[in-house]
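Morning F.,

Quick status update on the modeling queue. The single chain you submitted on Monday has been processed. Sequence for confirmation:
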Amino acid sequence: MADGVAHAYHLYVIQVPERKAVYDALRARGIYCQVHYIPVHLQPYYRGLGGHAGQFPLAEAYYSRCLSLPMFPGLTDAQLDYVIESVIAAVTEVVQQLGAAAAATPVPQAAQPTP
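Structure tokens below.
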């Protein structure tokens, strides 16, 4: 980083299969994750203006898989190692429960512009 610039330590987001199952597995290990942010078109205000599910499928697909891990300046190396180990264990557990076929489902990619 450039001199005089500091990291905000705001969010560290990962994408996982079956977010709720991974979230629950991490909670069981004492790791408190969060989900940021609900797609704008699904916020109550924008639903009132006609926003609805299916309107922005890539945003909704991302939202269904994103999970914010704990991140703050005072996070110790030992805590960080525990979070990493727990994420690996939780995702492995969930993928094993899903079976190989479900885990191999590709994550939707953004549409590429045509040349």
